[in-house]
């Protein structure tokens, strides 16, 4: 796998405010990289530095295989968080403008635009003015404008805002296909369920500082609490007295049980099958949402 | 660079396609025409096929024959005579007896020839507003020529000499700008100059306002970020300036074509003097200087409201020359006129006005053009500094102090 994008010690200061404080990360081909954090954490500033819209106070951004200058601009596709296009212009004209501005020729941009319009099922809207479109369709046109030039690096800021579940599914599929085609995809969001379902890697930031970084499944393992979901028939109240249990809650026929470190789940399972009929026993992964909340509760004191 | 052109093209066509642009471009000249016609400042040029009755009242009885013969000698292109000379009978009681015939439109005017007791002959053309400049010019020529020939004959010039005199006497009406001492000329010069600077003002307000509004849209919709992720900030800036300049030139071109069409179809008589090209140069530079300001100011604006305020303030400066235009026209060499000539924001309109009345010294023209060019260069430099920070600056409008620190950076 190629190491396509690398940021080293990025710092961005605005007069008295440090928006981004010493961030370093690498993104490889085929990864979907989630840039996560609460509002005002420094996500947008980081993205702007990756996009060369603002220059870092210090630190570097480098793109392997991509030469200096124009090429960087033409290899990046960007979907900003606040959406908006030229209201009075026709959808197709807007797509063409952004496409040619990204280096596509006039003939290429026509072909690509019609392919994408078809793919997103909006080919009949090409000649409509942006202001006449529904919110979801505007988002689609904007999405097309970001990807029409087949960028190597795709940066999506809150990609799903404004999409209904059906279109979210559509966009998710497209993102997955882009990943398979070897694109580098960066998703910035504060919605953890989206990051969880899409990202392979995450960087969680708060107040401009790195809080948590790594492969999503590794992070989940690290945050795993030896918690299990049990479905059963019988009376489970006896487990309250078991010493290896740290925490548990149960309802009608199911329970979530956290075991003390070092407790073997199979020996615990054996123990309880003597008392009740167990129909289901699974390891419960922590949700990214929980990790997010828990980590931020440390207020950045967490050390990786 | 290719991207500059892509941006310039977009800026240009985006705005040209807008309805408000088309309306402004067409309505503006129409308004001026309406004002011009209604105030009689834009005289319709003589129409074909309409001979004008002109009376001749000759108390000396020496000149009328010659004048009648000469006036009958002017023809329209289709062969119709231009004038119908009518010999008027003397009415000793009232020399201005025939004035009422002018009022009644029986004659367009009459030539009154009298001799005073100390033998001075005077020619007087009395008319209402039925005669246009060209016709008045022709009559004046005829009077001069006829008088010269008749007098020469009386002083004893032989037939051969008279023929030679008649052939060699070539009288032309030449309009000298610095001789525009009659009131009508003054008003006319004022009005032509006025049209010019009003057009400049309207163009700046419309195109500039449109430009600032589109920048507000780009900022508030974060289109700016997409643009900046596609090209360098200087590319964007250059593209926008070029696009906006072409927008102005296009507008001007349409107005020039419009004016030319009106002129060549005899619908108006616009006096295009030898300084027209110079005036056009001032016009374009005057537009450019405001364009370069708009680019900088537009970038710090975040709302429609702010945009209107800024264009409003700028047009206030533009209005100064209009307010003082009467004074500039009456005394084009006054201290005020001179000062405003060298204040970059008013150079263009003031020079356009002054050029209409007389040709200022070459050094003043050269110096003012130089000042304009230098200011445009400087303003673009300052604007680009502001632009670079301003377009990513959201929230409240930056203070003057902040702006200065941006420029210094």
Q: How would you characterize this protein structure?
A:
The complex is a heterodimer of chains A (about 300) and B (about 400). With about 300 residues, chain A is an alpha/beta fold. Chain A has 2 domains: about 5-220, 3-Layer(aba) Sandwich (Rossmann fold), CATH 3.40.50; about 225-285, Alpha-Beta Plaits (2-Layer Sandwich). In chain A, about 35% of the residues lie in helices and about 30% in strands. Chain A has 10 helices and 13 strands. In chain A, α3 packs across α4 (about 105-120) and α3 packs parallel to α5 (about 135-145). Chain A is elongated and about 75 Å long. Mean pLDDT of chain A is about 85; it is low at about 300-304. Chain B is of the alpha/beta class. Chain B has 16 helices and 4 strands. In chain B, α1 (about 1-15) crosses α9 (about 235-265), α7 (about 185-220) runs antiparallel to α9 (about 235-265) and α7 (about 185-220) runs antiparallel to α14 (about 345-355). Chain B is elongated. The interface of A and B includes residues 73, 76, 78, 82 and 146 of A.
Please give a handful of descriptors for the protein shown.
heterodimer; A: 304 residues; alpha/beta; Rossmann fold; Alpha-Beta Plaits; 2 domains; 6-stranded mixed sheet; 4-stranded antiparallel sheet; 10 helices; disordered C terminus; B: 409 residues; 4-stranded mixed sheet; 16 helices; elongated
In short, what is this structure?
The complex is a heterodimer of chains A (304) and B (409). Chain A is 34% helix and 29% strand.
Layout of helices and strands:
The complex is a heterodimer of chains A (304) and B (409).
Chain A (H helix, E strand, L loop, with lengths): L2 E12 L2 E12 L3 E5 L6 H8 L7 E6 L6 H6 E4 L11 H11 L4 H14 L15 H13 L5 E5 L7 H16 L3 E6 L2 H7 L2 E6 L2 E7 H8 L3 E7 L11 E6 L3 E6 L5 H9 L3 E7 L4 H10 L7
Parallel strand pairs in A: 3-7, 3-8, 5-6, 6-7
Antiparallel strand pairs in A: 1-2, 1-4, 8-9, 10-12, 10-13, 11-12
Chain B lengths: L1 H15 L2 H20 L13 E7 L5 H8 L11 E5 L11 H5 L5 E7 L5 E7 L5 H22 L4 H10 L14 H38 L2 H6 L4 H32 L11 H24 L4 H20 L1 H6 L4 H7 L2 H14 L4 H29 L9 H9 L1
Parallel strand pairs in B: 1-2, 1-3
Antiparallel strand pairs in B: 3-4
């Amino acid at each position: 796998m190629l190491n396509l994008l690398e940021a080293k010690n990025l710092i961005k200061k605005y007069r008295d405010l440090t928006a981004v404080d010493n961030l370093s990360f690498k993104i490889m081909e085929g990864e979907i990289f989630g840039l996560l954090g609460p509002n005002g954490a420094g996500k947008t500033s980081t993205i702007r530095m990756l996009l060369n819209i603002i220059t870092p106070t210090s630190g570097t951004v480098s793109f392997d295989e991509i030469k200096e200058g124009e090429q960087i601009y033409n290899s990046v596709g960007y979907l900003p968080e606040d959406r908006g296009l030229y209201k009075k212009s026709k959808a197709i004209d807007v797509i063409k403008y952004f496409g040619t501005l990204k280096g596509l020729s006039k003939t290429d941009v026509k072909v690509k635009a019609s392919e994408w319009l078809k793919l997103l099922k909006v080919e009949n809207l090409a000649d409509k003015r942006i202001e006449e479109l529904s919110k979801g369709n505007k988002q689609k046109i904007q999405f097309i404008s970001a990807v029409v030039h087949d960028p190597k690096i795709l940066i999506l800021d809150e990609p799903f805002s404004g999409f209904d579940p059906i279109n979210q599914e559509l966009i998710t599929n497209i993102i997955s296909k882009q990943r398979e085609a070897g694109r580098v995809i960066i998703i910035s969001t504060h919605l953890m369920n989206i990051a969880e379902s899409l990202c392979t890697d995450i960087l969680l930031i708060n107040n401009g500082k790195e809080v948590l970084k790594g492969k999503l499944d590794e992070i989940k393992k690290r945050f795993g609490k030896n918690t299990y979901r049990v479905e059963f028939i019988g009376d489970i109240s006896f487990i309250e007295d078991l010493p290896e249990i740290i925490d548990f809650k149960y309802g009608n026929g199911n329970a979530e049980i956290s075991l003390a470190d070092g407790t073997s789940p199979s020996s615990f399972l054996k123990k309880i099958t003597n008392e009740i009929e167990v129909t289901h026993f699974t390891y419960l992964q922590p949700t990214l949402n929980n990790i997010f909340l828990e980590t931020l509760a440390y207020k950045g004191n967490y050390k990786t | 660079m290719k991207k500059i052109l892509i941006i310039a093209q977009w800026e240009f066509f985006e705005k040209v396609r807008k309805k408000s642009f088309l309306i402004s471009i067409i309505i503006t000249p129409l308004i001026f025409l309406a004002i011009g016609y209604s105030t009689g400042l834009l005289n319709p040029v003589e129409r074909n096929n309409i001979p004008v009755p002109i009376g001749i009242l000759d108390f000396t009885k020496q000149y009328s024959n010659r004048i009648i013969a000469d006036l009958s000698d002017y023809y329209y292109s289709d062969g119709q005579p231009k004038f119908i000379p009518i010999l008027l009978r003397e009415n000793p009681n009232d020399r201005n007896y025939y004035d009422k015939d002018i009022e009644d439109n029986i004659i367009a005017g009459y030539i009154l020839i009298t001799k005073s007791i100390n033998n001075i002959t005077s020619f007087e053309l009395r008319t209402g507003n039925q005669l246009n400049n060209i016709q008045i010019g022709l009559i004046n020529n005829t009077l001069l020529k006829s008088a010269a020939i008749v007098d020469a004959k009386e002083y004893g010039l032989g037939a051969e000499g008279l023929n030679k005199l008649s052939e060699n006497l070539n009288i032309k009406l030449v309009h000298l700008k610095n001789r525009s001492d009659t009131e009508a000329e003054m008003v006319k010069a004022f009005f032509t100059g006025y049209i010019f600077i009003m057009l400049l003002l309207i163009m700046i307000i419309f195109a500039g306002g449109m430009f600032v509004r589109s920048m507000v849209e780009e900022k508030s919709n974060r289109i700016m970020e997409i643009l900046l992720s596609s090209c360098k900030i200087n590319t964007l800036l250059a593209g926008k300036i070029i696009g906006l300049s072409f927008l102005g030139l296009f507008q001007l071109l349409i107005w020039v074509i419009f004016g030319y069409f009106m002129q060549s179809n005899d619908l108006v008589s616009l006096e295009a003097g030898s300084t027209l090209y110079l005036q056009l140069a001032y016009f374009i530079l005057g537009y450019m200087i405001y364009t370069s300001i708009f680019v900088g100011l537009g970038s710090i604006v975040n709302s429609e409201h702010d945009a209107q305020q800024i264009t409003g303030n700028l047009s206030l400066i533009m209005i100064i020359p209009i307010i003082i235009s009467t004074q500039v026209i009456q005394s084009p060499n006054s201290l005020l006129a001179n000062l405003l000539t060298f204040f970059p924001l008013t150079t263009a309109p003031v020079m356009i006005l002054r050029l209409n009345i007389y040709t200022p010294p070459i050094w003043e023209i050269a110096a003012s053009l130089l000042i304009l060019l230098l200011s445009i260069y400087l303003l673009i430099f300052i604007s680009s500094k502001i632009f670079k920070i301003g377009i990513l600056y959201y929230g409240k409008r930056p203070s003057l102090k902040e702006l200065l620190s941006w420029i210094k950076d």
